[in-house]
Automatic annotation (TrEMBL):
InterPro entries documented for this protein: FeoB_Cyto (IPR041069), FeoB_GTPase (IPR050860), G_FEOB_dom (IPR030389), GTP-bd (IPR006073), P-loop_NTPase (IPR027417)
Family matches, as SUPFAM superfamilies: P-loop containing nucleoside triphosphate hydrolases
CDD domains found in the cross-reference section: FeoB (cd01879)
Annotated protein name in UniProt: Ferrous iron transport protein B
Species whose genome carries this gene: Lutibacter oricola
GO CC annotations, alphabetized: plasma membrane
Domain FeoB-type G: 31-193
GO molecular function per UniProt: ferrous iron transmembrane transporter activity; GTP binding
């Protein structure tokens, strides 16, 4: 017999929030790993706290996340480990705490990366978004601080944004938990492959550069067979990125 339902919207997104179980620091035996990345002060730790029930410091100052924090949650009978990263402006030249974020995004092999952006300052956030989309196939854009954007009369066409970026976009106001159920559901759909992302990538790489990248990429993979993002590493080597040169020499990222 079919299970009786109390209301027509029992299966709706908002109701799905009740499928969330906050697991605090319990991160053993997870099915999926989710990273929270984005510019500083976009609400990453606020999202993290809402999902895990933990109390990562949030705020302007002092409240900066400087090391990564890990927590767990259960959604639709799947166990997730979620990693709150320090804010970063770029994956290219990074300060020491930004490097914690960059290393995890690049080498931590998250199943899904939630890129948290400030909807009231979208343009300046897109630089990092595009960089992250160069190196991952599974990402969700969390368009946070929507309350702030609305207050400033900023309208965002999130459908067009999703189409142009090639990843799902979920508007949220994390401080008041608006949009969090939709975010959870979307992350779940990306993690399970129900939603396939087609991230925006830079096209038309000149042939000679492409050849050089490919040559290097094969060498990197021969030395470090399990390294993710070997093409990106090759590109950074060609660009003379000191930290990546160092990392390739020492193999430090292999331990991540
Ligand atoms: N108005 C509004 N404020 C928010 C929202 N989400 C987060 N905040 C506030 O924004 C500030 C920064 O939030 P955090 O969660 O610490 O941001 P973060 O991205 O973790 O910051 P870093 O760790 O420094 O990168 C805090 O004061 C939050 O309460 C939101 O949706 N709307
Ligand atoms: Mg933080």
């Amino acid at each position: 017999m079919q299970k009786p339902t109390n209301s027509a919207c029992e299966g709706c997104d908002l109701n799905q929030a009740s499928n969330l179980k906050k697991l605090g620091i319990n991160i053993d035996n997870n099915d999926y790993v989710v990273a929270l990345a984005g510019n500083p002060n976009t609400g990453k730790s606020t999202v993290f706290n809402a999902l895990t029930g933990l109390k990562q410091h949030t705020g302007n100052w002092p409240g900066k996340t400087v090391t990564r924090a890990e927590g767990g949650y259960n959604f639709n009978n799947n166990k997730y480990k979620i990693v709150d990263l320090p804010g970063t402006y770029s994956l290219l030249s990074t300060s020491q705490d930004e490097e914690v974020a960059r290393n995890f995004i690049l080498f931590g092999k998250p199943d899904v990366t939630i890129i948290v952006v400030d909807a009231s300052r979208l343009e300046r956030n897109l630089n990092l978004v595009l960089q992250i989309l160069e190196i991952t196939n599974k990402a969700v854009l969390c368009l946070n601080l929507m309350d702030e954007a609305t207050r400033l009369d900023i309208e965002i066409d999130d459908r067009t944004l999703a189409r142009d970026l090639g990843i799902p976009v979920v508007p949220t106001s994390a401080r008041s938990k608006e949009g969090i159920p939709e975010l959870l559901k979307t992350v779940h759909q990306v993690a399970t492959g129900e939603i396939i992302c087609k991230p925006h990538r830079i096209k038309n790489v000149p042939k000679n550069i492409n050849n050089a990248i490919e040559k290097l990429r094969l060498e990197i993979e021969a030395t470090y067979p399990n390294v993710p993002n070997s093409r990106w590493i090759a590109l950074r080597l060609l660009d003379g990125d000191e930290r990546i040169i160092e990392a390739v020499k020492t193999g430090e990222f292999i331990t991540e």
